[in-house]
Amino acid sequence: MSSLKEIVNTKQYNLNENSFREYCKSTLDQQGVLVLDNFLNPSAIQQIIQEGEASQHLAYFCQQSHSAYLTPPDDSFPAQHPQNQQVISSKGCITDDQIGQNSPLRCVYDAEDFRQFLCYVLGEESLYEYADPLSSINLHYARANEELGWHFDNSSFAITLLVQKPEGGGAFEYVKDARNSSQGDMNYPLVKSILDAKTQGTTLTMEPGALVLFRGRDSLHRVTPVKGDTTRMLVVLAYNSQPGIALSKFAQETFYGRSAKPAELNH
């Protein structure tokens, strides 16, 4: 599969059509999330699943304890304050350099039509790949009982493709505008209520092949524990609004269990 038309359902989604772009942009601006079901063609989904299953033994699996704000512990707050209250995230991940050169994922990620569509919808002037060889395309695995705990994203947007659903669980839940980071309002009472399961999130319904754009910097979100023997597979397509950006060595080692060699960084 070497062309976008082979991989993406362009009959339903014309990425170059102005009215469609405007619909997507307004939906994301108003709701903080955009779901395009059946974005990938069935044959592309199957190829990605096969690639994912063949590469799963390469994945870095880890379990991490963290706060919803993804910040280090702050001794000026009590342990059970939402600034410090810990949740668990557990998953596996293969990195960009472990994605095949002929993978449909690489074709979609690199396609100029797709990137220009994203720029319009996200309100970005340009989008660039990461300057390290690990971070641009990541395939995430969640096996039985693995999950993502409640958290806010550090980035202003996330772009994902659901590849395979588990038999149960693995649901994406979110609470829109749970804080206002630009104003420094962490909204501790609401976050505490969510962490203590007194306030419920909205469940996002999606099927394999769905493209999801999500603004998670101020919307608290999680993925519930997976149930059953079928692994949840989700692809993260990561871009930057500036060229030459690489994840720090610490971030690479935290997320991927290794870091890129200096000679592998793009300058």
From TrEMBL:
<feature type="domain" description="Fe2OG dioxygenase">
    <location>
        <begin position="133"/>
        <end position="241"/>
    </location>
</feature>
<comment type="similarity">
    <text>Belongs to the iron/ascorbate-dependent oxidoreductase family.</text>
</comment>
<dbReference type="GO" id="GO:0016491">
    <property type="term" value="F:oxidoreductase activity"/>
</dbReference>
<keyword id="KW-0408">Iron</keyword>
<dbReference type="GO" id="GO:0046872">
    <property type="term" value="F:metal ion binding"/>
</dbReference>
<dbReference type="InterPro" id="IPR056470">
    <property type="entry name" value="BesD/HalB-like"/>
</dbReference>
<keyword id="KW-0560">Oxidoreductase</keyword>
<dbReference type="Pfam" id="PF23169">
    <property type="entry name" value="HalD"/>
</dbReference>
<dbReference type="InterPro" id="IPR005123">
    <property type="entry name" value="Oxoglu/Fe-dep_dioxygenase_dom"/>
</dbReference>
<protein>
    <recommendedName>
        <fullName>Fe2OG dioxygenase domain-containing protein</fullName>
    </recommendedName>
</protein>
<keyword id="KW-0479">Metal-binding</keyword>
